[in-house]
Amino acid sequence: MFNKGEEKKSVAEMVNSSNVIAKETTIKGDIITFGNIRIEGTVEGTLSSKTKIVIGDSARLVGNIDTKEAEIAGKVEGEIRCSDILFLKKTADIDGDIFTRKLVIENGAVFNGICKMIEESDSKEIELPVKNNTKSKDDKTELTKGKEVITG
Q1: I need a surface site. Which of 74, 95, 99, 151 has the fewest CB within 10 A?
Q2: pTM more than 0.85
Q3: How many domains does the chain have?
Q4: Does residue 142 fall inside a structural domain?
């Protein structure tokens, strides 16, 4: 169907592509892309990118971010996972946990949550911090050393 040259070109175009969600746009659902994405509107769902996610100062995200690199200037309510670097601009307002290798925070940014600095080997599988080690009688799930364990 495609020769190798066309296939390589197609993959390169996907990775180098840029997507923009405009200021007056609202999306409900998950967005997965190989290329860069810039949000200026509202998104309710998970954002995943193999390259970079930019949340503009007029943007609002209710959901999680999973990417290599992110730059946030707007409002995010959810978990942020960056395998490389996260930039929080002075207008950023984060309500959720951050997991990243490198973090740059401008003066004025607001962050409410926990932050765990990960190493490159941890970037694929990140352990969540332990909040408690309790188990209810009806629940067959318990937290042990940052990992969820199903019992019974």
Answers
A1: 151
A2: no
A3: 1
A4: no
